[in-house]
Each structure stands twice: as C-alpha cells, then as structure tokens.
Design goal:
Among the domains are: 19-118, Helix Hairpins, CATH 1.10.287; 129-281, 3-Layer(aba) Sandwich (Rossmann fold); 407-547, 3-Layer(aba) Sandwich (Rossmann fold), CATH 3.40.50.720. With 653 residues, the chain is α/β, with parallel strands linked by helices. The chain has a 6-stranded parallel beta sheet with strand order 3-2-1-4-5-6, sandwiched between helices. A 6-stranded parallel beta sheet has the order 13-12-11-14-15-16. A 4-stranded antiparallel beta sheet has the order 7-10-8-9.
Length: 653
C-alpha cells in the first residue's frame, strides 16, 4: 500500500508539472482524456450491447467519441444501457470538450493579451526616440518631445523618418503608467506613437527588446528618488551594456545616447563607458549653479524658468542652434549680432565647445558650426539684412556684474543628491564670502562622507551642519534667522516620490515663513519644487521657485533632438564658462530714464556683454521681459529694474 500511494503521488506530480507547462500541454491532457474516455466507453458499449451501428470495437469507440463531442447524437440511441452510456458521455463531453477546452483557450487568450499589454514582446522600429527607465519625470519628457514640433520635424528630416515614435522601457508596464501618460499628455496622447515595454536597461536582452541599436536617439535619465541605490552606477552599467551588445556595429554608427549623471566626479568615467556618440549631462551641477546664481542675483529664477522650462508656453524664449547660412560662413561672429531682429545671438557651438559672442572678435563662423540664439521660435532665427555689429567695442574696463551682496549668509533646509554640487559651486566663488548652514535629518557624518566620496573639499566656504527635522518650528526658531540673506528649500529625494517630497516641502515652507515672520526677517526664499503643479502653492513675492525635474527633463529631451544644445547649456548654465548675470538698470544716484531694448543691447555690446532682457521687481515679485517683441519701443527704467546679461567670464574670477 505504501508503494502504491508513493506511485500515485509521483504520477500526480508529473501530471501537474506537465499541465502547468503551458496551453499546449493542457490541450494534450484534454485530448488524451477524451481519447481514453471514448475507448473505455466504446468497449463497454460493445461488450454490453453489440449493435449493427458498430460491428467491431473500433466502430464502437468512434460511436462513443461522437457522443462525447456532439450532444446532438443523444436522441438517436435506444435502450436503457445505451442511453445511460450515451448520456454519461455527453455530460463528460460538456465538461471536457466544451468546458475545459473553452477554459483553456480563454486562459491562453487572456495570458497572450496580458503578455502583449505588459510589453514583453520585442519591437522593430527605426529612428525612434528611446527613453530607458521610468521615473517621476518620464511622462514630462514624453510631453516635451511631443511639444517640440519644430525640433522633432528637423530630427526626423535628418534621418529620413516620417513620424516620431517614442518608446519607453519601464521596469514593468502597467495600466497605471498608461493612465499617467494620458493625464499628462491629454489630447496629445497617441497609442501608436507611444510604445511601452517592460524590462531593465541593465540587461542586454531587454535593450534588444526595444531595438535600441536602431534608435534615432536614446535618453537615459537617472533615478531621482534613489539616493541610496547608486543611480549613477546603473547609468554607467547601462552605457556599457549598450556598447557591449553592439560589437558588430562601428562606434560611429551607434545611436546617440543622452545620459544623466548626478555625481560630477563620474562624468568623465561615464563618457568612457560608451564608444558611440554621447552627451553626458551633469544635471546636478547645472541645477546647483542655477540655485547659486539665483542666490547671487535674486530674480534669475524667472529667466531660468522661461529659457529652460518654458516649453509649454507659446511666447516663451528658448535656445536654438541653427546652421549658419552660406552667406554667414566666413564672417566674424561679432558681425552677425545685428542680423536678427527677433532673436538674440549669444555665440557659436563648435566641436563640443561653445564660444560666446564677444569672447573673441576675430572668431570666424565656419562650415559645420551651429549658431546659438535665443528666440521664441525657429522661424525667428532666420537672419535679415547685411552683417553688422550691434555696437563698436568700448576699450574702457568693464565693471563686474551686479551681485547684490559680496558677503552672504545662506540657510539650506533639506538634503538631496544635488547638495554636494551646490556646496561645491558656492565654494568656487573665491571672490565672495559665503556662510552656509545646512539643516537636515540626514546624519551629519553621512553628509560629510558623501562630500568626501565625491572629492569635495570645502576651502572657501564657512559650512555648518545642523541635524534636525526641517519642519520643526521649535528647532528652526533657535537659529539666528534675521542674519540670513537667503533661505533655500530643497526637496528631499529620500522620501521616495515627488509627491511626498513636495508635501514635506510645502510644510517646510509654511513653517519657515512662520518662523521668519515671528522675527521680522525677510530673506530671499528659493524653493526647488518637484512638481510644476505645486508652484502656485508657493506663490509669494518673497519666494522664487525652480522646478528642477522640468528643467532636467527639458535638458535631456532637447539635447536628444539637437545635441549641440548641450554644449551651449553646459557653458552658460554649467559650472564653468560664461554665465547669466544682472546689472542695475539705473546706476546708484542716477535718475530714471527711457530706453528701448535695441539701445540697451547696443550699450551692452559695447561692454562685451549680451543683453537678454530686463527684470522688474514689483509687488508681485520679479517680472521678466526677455527679447521683447517690440524691441524698438521705449520703456521707463527705474532703480527697481535689472538688466539680464550674459558675461563671458564668471563674476567670481
């Protein structure tokens, strides 16, 4: 009995293993069961009641099989025994042939549809735009790609493609991801234009699933809320996987990859990981410099938000890098500044570098260069008229840009992956003295270890760490809040999501304003928020908001469409090179006056600077007027106005 029970268990286990293999195995089991029932029932019928209808055993088995598969034969049988066997066969047929078969096929169809919807099947596309990874910025990036119609059209035309297809490789595709895309894109959502696939960018077979080798460009964003998971390591591993899986492809034929790196110390390492064309963007460095410059020049957030995050505003100015016309090739760059009545020439991109206008009066435009302009649309970048300078260069020494405070105290509330770059940028201002207090619940020893890990040695900065919850009014009130010139609120990426980070940020904002109001302090308040929808919640003439995810997404997507943009952005908004700065529109002690944008631009050109527009400090906060539509119209300038300029040398030099 023991051996019989063991044998039954082994047979049952093997049968179970065979059934769960798949649909074909289940169909085989059902077919074998039907054959077995038909054979047994036929033999019983033949033995009990031989009939002329089945003169031999084979015919009796066929008779049983027909009753098993078709209940219509039930009425043709006569006799109690025959009808009993026939009825039993019909019931078993309904269970096996109809029930089990339909259930098996339905399950197969459901599994097939689920597999297709889950995105496990490979695609076959050419010149698609591939985004590797899903995070809080992915839907924003897809929207920015679809909105950039002009750049997309030129991107497609350069590759001979007709329509943009965006492919996203997410860890696991789900209806929630599709719903998020629908919410963000609205009427722009097109199922045929946006393809989701499940997989990991770290695995070569999953990269092949999205046909990465035939992509027009690949965007590789870092995980924003994964401070403890080494996002840069995964980015570099993905770059290496993409390179190793294409051993049969020449490096020059590999698709362009635009990758995001948080740790500036790993930028060069990332560039070496991928032999093909690549633009490795240190977004943490760029955001850090924007915040630092905003600290030095209050009001610049308005400029940054328009130039780097104004993709959804029809009248916003943006950066463009068109090719020079044949007539412009061979001309000195400074002679082209007066050719653009509705755009502002800021320099030229060449061979991975950016040369600002007026850097070198002898710089000549060459074939293959890209002119860098600020305009509202690509059509505005068309030159008009003969080459001409805006003004003759003044040989008099130029005063430093208007930094309102040369010695400042800054309070930073919160900690995220950009903080090391922020402290490094502050420390680079050798011509200024800055005292910074950093408050966060993150242990001080861990912060210092992170700074040491990134090779950041603070030398010119007076840095003090405080360890407490930034939403604690009692602890915040113990600080000398009146002494601070600027308070910076940063979103903590260790909370796990943009929603949680902004919820904590909003609470911190209320606590900070309460604490500042209690002592009568009115520092500049700079807020780095994670969601564009929350900007209105921080509305305050005293506060300036930078939506860093939108800026980061815009950098990645626009560089993917036109890689030369990175060279311009890296220089103007990065850690080195030219910078956006401000000058007082009215000198101290001087009277108000009237002037047009063209007149102001000519004065700036004489000083070797590029005028972008003006900023006005009103009761509603800073108001920017960049590249005005009517550049000849005069407006009154007062002490509350600032001139926004690009200077070739950093003010801290």
């Amino acid at each position: 009995m023991k051996f019989l029970r063991r044998g039954i268990e082994l047979v049952r286990f093997q049968l179970e293993q065979f059934i769960v293999r798949g649909t074909l195995s289940r169909l085989i089991v059902i077919a074998l069961a039907m054959v077995l029932i038909a054979v047994v029932a036929g033999l019983i019928a033949y033995a009990v009641l031989p009939r002329a209808d089945y003169g031999d055993r084979g015919a009796a088995m066929w008779w049983a099989f027909l009753r098993l598969t078709d209940s219509g034969y039930l009425g043709d049988d006569e006799g109690v025994w025959l009808r009993t066997i026939s009825t039993t066969l019909t019931v078993l047929g309904v269970v096996l042939f109809v029930g089990a078969l339909i259930a098996t096929m339905t399950q197969w169809l459901d599994d097939t549809i689920e597999t297709l919807e889950a995105g496990y099947t490979p695609i076959a596309k050419n010149d698609h735009l591939l985004i590797l990874g899903w995070n809080n910025r992915t839907a924003e990036m897809v929207e920015q790609l679809l909105v950039a119609e002009g750049r997309v059209a030129r991107f497609l035309r350069a590759r001979g493609a007709k329509r943009l297809t965006v492919v996203v490789l997410a860890q696991k595709v789900s209806p929630a991801l599709t719903a998020e895309l629908r919410d963000v894109l609205g009427r722009r959502y097109r199922r045929r234009q946006i393809i989701l696939r499940s997989g990991s960018a770290l695995r070569t077979e999953h990269l092949k699933r999205v046909d990465y080798a035939h992509a027009g460009a690949i965007v590789l964003p870092a995980a924003e809320f994964d401070a403890g998971g080494a996002p840069d390591e995964r980015t570099i591993k993905t770059l290496m996987s993409a390179a190793s899986a294409s051993d049969d492809v020449e490096p020059a034929d590999l698709p362009l990859i635009v990758a995001e790196i948080f740790d500036a110390d790993l930028l060069e390492t990332a560039r070496q990981a991928y032999p093909g064309p690549a633009e490795i963007i240190g977004t943490a460095e760029i955001i850090a410099r924007l915040i630092v410059q905003n600290t030095r020049y209050p009001g610049l957030a308005e400029v940054y938000n328009e130039l780097l995050a104004g993709h959804d505003q029809a009248d916003a100015n943006r950066l463009f890098v068109p090719e020079p016309t044949s007539a412009q090739i061979g001309q000195p760059l400074s002679m082209l500044a007066g050719c653009y009545p509705t755009a502002i020439l800021i320099g030229v991109a060449r061979g991975g570098r950016f040369f600002a206008l007026y850097d070198d009066d002898d710089l000549v435009v060459e074939a293959g260069d890209r002119l860098a302009l600020i305009a509202r649309g690509y059509d505005d970048c068309e030159p008009a008229g003969e080459p001409a300078r805006l003004a003759a260069r003044d040989s008099a020494p130029v005063a430093a840009p208007h930094a309102t405070i040369r010695s400042r105290r800054v309070l930073v509330l919160g900690w995220n992956q950009k903080l090391p770059s922020l402290l490094k940028e502050f420390d680079s201002l050798t011509g200024e003295h800055t005292t910074i207090d950093v408050c966060s619940l993150l242990p001080i020893a861990e912060r210092e270890a992170l700074l040491a890990q990134r090779g950041i040695d603070i030398q010119h900065l007076a840095l003090t760490h405080h360890e407490f919850v930034v939403t604690s009014y009692a602890q915040l009130s113990r600080l000398d809040l009146v002494a601070y010139d600027t308070v910076i609120l940063v979103a903590s990426d260790w909370l796990g999501s943009a929603e949680a980070a902004d919820a904590r940020l909003l609470l911190s904002d209320l606590v900070v304003k309460r604490a500042l109001s209690a002592v009568g302090a009115k520092p500049t308040l700079i807020v780095e928020t994670m969601d564009e929808d929350n900007v209105s919640l921080f509305e305050d003439p005293q506060a300036e908001c930078l939506v860093s995810p939108v800026i980061q997404s815009n950098l990645l997507t626009q560089v993917a469409l036109r890689r030369e943009l990175h060279w311009v952005i890296e220089d103007i908004f990065g850690a080195h090179g030219a910078e956006v700065a401000m000058r007082p529109a009215v000198a101290p002690g001087a009277s108000d006056y009237e002037a047009s944008f063209d007149e102001l631009a000519a004065r700036a050109a004489a000083a070797g600077e590029i005028l972008l527009g003006t900023l006005h400090d009103s009761s509603r906060g800073w108001q920017a007027d960049l590249n005005p539509i009517d550049r000849g119209a005069k407006r009154r300038l007062t002490a509350a106005d600032r001139l926004v300029v690009i200077v070739s040398e950093p003010a801290s030099a």
